[in-house]
Structures are given as C-alpha cells and as structure tokens.
Write a structure and sequence with these properties.
This is Dihydrolipoyl dehydrogenase. It is an enzyme of class 1 (oxidoreductase). By secondary structure, the protein is of the alpha/beta class. The chain has three domains: 220 residues, FAD/NAD(P)-binding domain (3-Layer(bba) Sandwich); 111 residues, FAD/NAD(P)-binding domain (3-Layer(bba) Sandwich); 114 residues, FAD/NAD-linked reductase, C-terminal dimerisation domain (Enolase-like, domain 1), CATH 3.30.390. Strands 1, 2, 3, 4, 5, 6 and 17 form a seven-stranded mixed beta sheet that branches. Strands 8-15-9-10-11 form a five-stranded parallel beta sheet. Strands 18-19-22-21-20 form a five-stranded antiparallel beta sheet, with helices on both faces. It is globular, with a radius of gyration of 24 Å. The protein binds flavin-adenine dinucleotide and 1,4-dihydronicotinamide adenine dinucleotide. The site of 1,4-dihydronicotinamide adenine dinucleotide has 24 residues, from helix 6 and strand 18.
Length: 472
C-alpha cells in the first residue's frame, strides 16, 4: 500500500526540515524522509548541520574558547585558578548532548506541525499520474510535489579515503577523543579554521596546509589580513601555496608530504589529519535516473533561480544545488519553495546572504568585497573603525579587528560590510537588514546605537565612509 502526500521532502537537514514545516503550515499533507541515525539506530534528523556541522562545531568552539579564556585571560580580571584542566571526553559528550537536543527538537516540531516522518533512505522509483513514487525501505511514499534536500558530503583528496581514525572528515574531526599532539589540516577554509581553532586551544600543535597562495580568498583582503595576523599570533601555523603529496598512515601516526610555495619538499608527521577541502553535492541512493532528474557535472541537481528542477513539481534546495553551502541559505530556499508550491511568491536574495566564520576573532561579511568592487569597476567609498577604539570591546578585553563599510560612491548605498572581531556573527545582522532595505551608509550613521556596545563600531564605520568618525 502506498501513502499519498501533497508534498514529500527527501532529507531533513536545514533545507528539508524547514521546507517540510513551512509546507505543513501552508496546509499541505506533508511527509519528510531522512536516513540519518544515531549509533544505536534511532532517527537523528537535522542533517549535516545538526549532526556533524554547524551545531557540534559551535559547541566545541564554545568549550575550547571558555578553556582558553580561563587559561590566558582570566588573570587580567584578577581571577586566579589553580589546576585548570580540560576533560576532552566531557567536552565531546556535552557536544553530543547539544546535538541530541536539536535532533529531538526537530522530531517535536514535526509532530507539532503534523509532518509525517519516515526514517530511512528515500529513492525515486517512478513517476505516475498521482505523483512521484519514492521507496523508503518496504514502504512506497507518493508525493504530488517532491522537494529534494539531500545535502552534501565531504570531498576527499584523490586516493586518500577518510578512515575517520587518522584521516578525518568533519565527522571524525568532531569526535577526536583526546587532543592530538600534532594535527595537520588540509584546506584553510571555514572548517579548517574552525576545527583548527578548537584543537589548538585545547593543546594540539596545528599546521594548516592551503593550496591557494592567498589566505581566505573569498574574504575582503583587509579583513583576511587582519584575521591571518590574529590566527598566527595564537599559534596556528598556516602554510599557503602548498601542493599536498602523499599521505601515509603508519603505526600510531600519519605523514603528510607536501611541496612548499618555494618548491621545497617537506614531510610533516602528525597524529591525525583533517581534510577540509570543500564539499560535494550528495545524491547517493536517491536514484535520480529512475525519474530522469538532471544533475550537472559536479553532481549537483540542476535548478533554476526558483529551485525548480527539470521535472514538473520536483524541486531541490540547499547544498545539493548551486550556491553557497550554508544552513541559512538552505532554510531560505526551503521556505521559498514551500511558498511557491502554495502559489505564493517566496524569495531568496542571494546578495544579502551573510557568511560567518566562528573563530576568535570571528569573521563575518555580507555583500561584495573591496577586491570584487574593483574587479567590477564600481566606484565606491570605504570606511573602517577598529574595535580598539570601542569602549565595550576594551571592557571585554577583546579589541582585535574592525568593522568595514563599502558604499556606492554616488548613491551611498551599502554594497558590503565586513567584520573581523568580537561577536561579528551577531553584528553582521544589522548590515544584512540594512542591505535588504537598500539602506545607505548615512542611514546607519544616523541611527542611535546603544552605548557601550560593539554595535557602535558599526555606526562608526558607517560614519567613516564620510570621514567623520567621532571616536577615532
Ligand atoms: P544536509 O544538512 O546535508 O542534510 C541532508 C539530509 O538528507 C541528511 O540528513 C541526509 O542524511 C539526508 N539524506 C540524503 N540523501 C537521502 C536519501 N536518499 N534519503 C533520505 N535521506 C537522505 N553552515 C552554516 O550556515 N553555519 C555554520 O556554522 C556551518 N558550520 C558547518 C560546520 C561543518 C563542520 C560543516 C561540515 C558544515 C557546516 N555548515 C554550516 C554547512 C551546513 O551544515 C550545510 O550548508 C547545511 O547542512 C546544508 O543543509 P541541507 O539541508 O542542504 O543538507
Ligand atoms: P571551503 O571551501 O571553505 O575551504 C576549502 C579550502 O581548501 C579552500 O581554501 C581551498 O583552496 C583549499 N583546498 C582545496 N583543495 C586543496 C588541496 N588539495 N590542498 C590544500 N588545500 C586545498 O571548504 P570546507 O572548509 O571544507 O567547508 C565546506 C563548506 O562547509 C564551506 O564552504 C561552507 O559552505 C560550509 N561551512 C560553513 C561554516 C560556517 O558557515 N561557519 C563552517 C564550516 C563549513
């Protein structure tokens, strides 16, 4: 017997579970299928983000940051501590508990919104008059509309499969049982910097090997330089422009051969290696060929600007389609698709999707970088304000970094905002709102910001566009 639904969502990561909730809110009889399971076989909805991505990484970042604060900065406040130690087992167990709270939260939300949940792998079987037949174990689920949100997988180096013991993806990187003495990260992207920070803070000697000659090429150059300075000062060794060669596991460790930017051959001995060189769209087991669902050469599902695939009533969102691989981008697409199915006008503004790297200092940005504006031949004005001149940052004892505004030279419209410094992840929201409403730098400069707050640095950077900062 098959079960018929108006909307069937395949995948319960941020793209899928949010799409399912929104579809149910709009009155559709909705099902969501997800195969992720806990070690004892129970459903663990939430996808990469909840299980091995955003949430566990931020839990470990918080624990390790607390430890480093206590070890290095509590003394500045007159707080002395004896026998400070970190129990990595407990830190990892806390992270697991945070993940479980989120898994349970999604199951609760499905119940609350009357989304029918199927635990297992969903595979396209065929298209019929009634809709698309999807096989989940022994059950056949039929959806008039189908939203595919099957996410992404970590990319391995050619010929170097993940064993999750010594050669780790993000999955293994989040459950290392004790701080490795020596850790090598391949790729100084978002995962490399976040995971590198976690393990460095709790005692590992971390080397990051990056293929590109520039550090964080997608980030505004001035901000990336400031961040690189801060990470290097913290003890993160970052080698740019390298070519990684053979990786061999032997005995307790692993060796990584590489050629430096100057052409020298080097071999690093480490306890573990984390490979974080990007992610690839995932359609494993989906059987797109059964219904003729089109993929591109990267394996991503081909969609138009509104997430329509080549098949009528089949949509795809999140990491499995083009665009940034971010949880909030996946969510926005999920909501927009559910609303389009309902005949509404859901929209996602790709120009105002914020990026955040949750290191210390945090890095956050929205809109275009200075190098992009130059390349696009746009006439712009820039204004920066350092946290060193912000009262709240001084009180916090965290004055690294700055806020930077880029505005159109003629109209003053904000074209990009870039932050490196404390709480950049929270501060960036103001810039996102401003850009969504097409605000000018002058708009932000004229708005009253609470004192003393980090957000005053945002106002001051907006004032700096017109060369009239008040506190610098
Ligand atoms: P996913 O979250 O990957 O979910 C896909 C789901 O579909 C999975 O549960 C999978 O099991 C299921 N599935 C796949 N195929 C099938 C099938 N055939 N049948 C049934 N189920 C199936 N993004 C941020 O915005 N902020 C962050 O801080 C952040 N941190 C990250 C940290 C790490 C270490 C990593 C790896 C990623 C991070 N990301 C972050 C990226 C974020 O996790 C992804 O962009 C997001 O999870 C994409 O959501 P999604 O719904 O498209 O896919
Ligand atoms: P990434 O794309 O951020 O960085 C990969 C890095 O590896 C790049 O700098 C690239 O030049 C380098 N690289 C590629 N091949 C290499 C090689 N052979 N040798 C050495 N370096 C090489 O990818 P990452 O860090 O794996 O993360 C994947 C995605 O997950 C991110 O792009 C992001 O979308 C998402 N993510 C988001 C987070 C956040 O929002 N805070 C946190 C973590 C991940």
């Amino acid at each position: 017997m098959s079960k018929q639904f108006d909307v069937v969502v395949i995948g319960a990561g941020p793209g899928g579970y949010i799409a399912a909730i929104r579809a149910a809110q709009l009155g559709f009889n909705t099902a969501c299928i997800d195969e992720w399971k806990t070690q004892d076989g129970k459903p663990a909805p939430g996808g990469t983000c909840t299980n091995v991505g955003c949430i566990p990484s931020k839990a470990l970042l918080q624990s390790s940051e607390n430890y480093e604060e206590a070890a290095k900065h509590f003394g500045d406040h007159g707080i002395s501590m004896k026998d400070l130690a970190i129990d990595i087992g407990k830190m990892v167990a806390r992270k697991d508990a945070v993940v479980k709270q989120n898994n349970d939260g999604i199951l609760y939300l499905f119940k609350k919104n009357k989304v029918t949940f199927f635990h297992g792998r969903g595979s396209f079987a065929k298209a019929t008059e009634a809709g698309y037949e999807i096989q989940v174990g022994d059950e056949t689920v039929v959806g008039k509309h189908v939203i595919v949100a099957t996410g992404s997988n970590p990319r391995a180096l050619p010929g170097v499969p993940f064993d999750e013991e010594k050669i780790l993806s993000n999955d293994g990187a989040l459950r290392i049982p004790s701080a490795p003495k020596k850790l090598v990260l391949i790729g100084s992207g978002v995962i490399g910097l976040e995971m590198g920070s976690v393990w460095r803070r709790v005692g590992s000697e971390v080397t990051v090997l990056e293929a590109l000659p520039t550090f964080l090429g997608a980030v505004d150059e001035q901000i990336a330089k400031e961040a690189q300075k801060a990470f290097t000062k913290q003890g993160l060794k970052i080698e740019l422009g390298v070519k990684v060669g053979e990786i061999k596991t032997a005995g307790q460790g692993v060796s990584v051969a590489y050629t430096t930017a100057k052409g020298e051959q080097q071999v690093l001995q480490a306890d573990r290696v984390i490979v974080s060189i990007g992610r690839v769209p995932n359609t494993n087991g989906l059987k797109p060929e059964a219904v003729g669902l089109k993929l591109d050469e990267r394996g991503a599902i081909v969609v138009d600007a509104e997430c329509r695939t080549n098949l009528p009533n089949v949509w795809a969102v999140g990491d499995v389609v083009r665009g940034p691989m971010l949880a909030h981008k996946a969510e926005e697409e999920g909501v927009a698709v559910a609303e389009r199915i309902a005949g509404q006008h859901g929209h996602v503004n790709f120009n105002t999707i914020p990026w955040v790297i949750y290191t210390s200092p945090e890095i956050a940005w929205v809109g275009r970088t200075e190098q992009q504006l130059k390349a696009d031949g746009v006439q712009y004005k820039a204004g920066t304000f350092p946290f060193l001149a912000n009262g709240r940052a001084r009180a916090l004892g965290d004055t690294t970094g700055m806020v930077k505004f880029l505005a159109d030279a003629r109209t003053d419209e904000i074209l990009g905002v870039h932050i490196v410094g404390p709480m950049a992840s929270e501060l960036i929201s103001e810039a996102v709102v401003a850009m969504e409403f097409k605000a000018s730098a002058e708009d932000i400069a004229r708005i009253c910001h609470a004192h003393p707050s980090l957000s005053e640095a945002t106002k001051e950077a907006a004032l700096a566009v017109d060369k009239r900062t008040l506190n610098f």
